[in-house]
């Protein structure tokens, strides 16, 4: 088999890149290790920046998103029993939207299918060969058969545990990492959200986040210990703990119900440099991870897709390699700023096991400064809605 761009990974990065390239007449094959059902069962991100929304529109897959998503013009930050509002609209003229990663992934699968795009599921042992030559090829197994795809380029969109990053030799690759001493326990429940906007809450007992997917689907998270497992937390214990970590005004209004999903995610900051090796380009979680506190994971994946898509279109349409040559530099410049925001927001709102009284006073002063300073709110809002591409 031959294609122009072989895309490893059928998550949001790989599918969006495939759909955008298709609209420019560039042929792709997507290789996904799991089944479509498995990919769609993973509950992950929920907040999209305007840059992501624009890419979905450009890809021609925004109809349902435009109909069903919720626009959020700001967010609530809580500290103990106190709450204040940060307006994105007022400080940046931009909003964010609430639309689940599961939904947008479903829309992208449907669009690729309708366009007759090739997505191969359940593939095993993907190996990227000759990425540093002019004739790369990818080998893999499907239904017990060994297969080969020859291509011009390989896009490594296979997430943090994929093969693409590992293909880049250690003599070329440099990795930067910070692992946080806690995780997030998240639940999804068919209950109305506690508030019309998200609440990011600092509390003595640890961080909590009240989020949502729609008018009758809520997503809540609490900071938990890395040694916890979802089975350690009954629904009842989760709700009790959440109520203790959000202002009483919100806790009194909280509607509880059975969880329909419960999972724990560890928190990590991670960047690999460079994001290109020869004809292999890394995109999304394959190249970088942020702790989820600023809702940047999926949104940074989208900015990579933007730079790579434009670089590849420039290569095929104008015979100009400037865009792909500068891909890594452009993507990383934006990534590091999102890493900084995610790290700073995590530090601002979580309890650390070794925090001293002094550290707590600093955290409290930081939150008070954000509450009182227009300038600080503007900086927060600019980062939250997403820096320009
Ligand atoms: P992925 O979504 O990881 O997709 C990669 C795909 O590649 C997967 O489908 C995988 O099966 C496939 N793959 C892997 N290896 C191979 C291989 N060898 N061969 C073929 N295919 C392969 N972000 C937020 O903003 N908010 C959140 O609340 C949030 N929660 C998260 C919770 C969890 C548990 C995780 C892991 C991430 C979370 N994120 C969140 C981050 C966000 O979901 C990711 O940034 C986003 O999924 C990145 O998309 P991606 O396509 O780059 O990678
Ligand atoms: C969600 C997750 C986040 O990490 C965040 O900052 C906001 C919302 C969510 O899953 O809804």
From TrEMBL:
It comes from the Bacteria. Keywords: FAD, Flavoprotein, Monooxygenase, Oxidoreductase. One of its GO terms (molecular function) is FAD binding. This is p-hydroxybenzoate 3-monooxygenase. InterPro entries: FAD-bd (IPR002938), FAD/NAD-bd_sf (IPR036188), HB_mOase (IPR012733), RIFMO-like (IPR050641). One of its GO terms (biological process) is benzoate catabolic process. Pfam families: FAD_binding_3. SUPFAM superfamilies: FAD-linked reductases, C-terminal domain, FAD/NAD(P)-binding domain. The lineage of its organism: Bacteria, Pseudomonadati, Pseudomonadota, Alphaproteobacteria, Rhodobacterales. Residues 2-342 form the FAD-binding domain. It comes from Tropicimonas isoalkanivorans.
